[in-house]
UniProtKB/TrEMBL annotation:
InterPro entries: DUF6636
Signal peptide residues on this chain, from the entry's feature table: 1-21
Pfam families: DUF6636
UniProt source species: Flavimaribacter sediminis
Name of protein: Uncharacterized protein
Highest taxon of source: Bacteria
UniProt keywords, alphabetically: Signal
Length: 137
């Protein structure tokens, strides 16, 4: 599972050519959650929650020497996953996903609400992120 997640992050960060034209980045109004991805080929999204609390959505794997519980990825089909990464930093994106807004990114739909951010793919898999709770299904 971890290997798949790392491949997803490499895809998100190393995408070139036509997929770059389909790239996007946004943050929630609180600035605590931000996402990047692309829409071509079914899409992929990676979201980071800067400040979090509560239980981890998944247990921290022994192979993770970095920070756990802040980075979530999802492709157009298949399971959502968490990745081991660096300490999250805030961003200042001009694209804000206002509360109540939903958008489709390829085969992924994300909805921003006061209670948190939900992203779900065409197979019904996804994640929910809020300061108090993070979930993967």
């Amino acid at each position: 599972m971890i290997t798949r997640c790392f491949l997803g992050i490499l895809t998100l960060t190393l995408t070139s050519g036509a997929a770059l034209a389909d790239g996007f980045g946004f943050m929630t109004p609180s600035g605590n959650i931000y996402c990047n991805g692309y829409v071509s080929g079914g899409g992929a999204i990676g979201c980071t929650i800067v400040s979090r609390s509560g239980e981890f959505a998944l247990p921290k794997p022994a192979s993770c020497a970095g920070v756990w519980g802040h980075e979530f990825t999802l492709e157009g089909s298949g399971p959502a996953c968490m990745t081991c990464g660096e300490a999250p930093k805030g961003v200042d994106y001009s694209d804000i996903a206002d509360y109540g807004a939903s958008a489709d990114f390829g085969d992924i739909t994300c909805t921003s609400e006061r209670t948190g951010l939900t992203c779900r793919n065409k197979t019904g898999r996804g994640f929910f992120l809020s300061r108090r709770k993070q979930e993967i299904w």
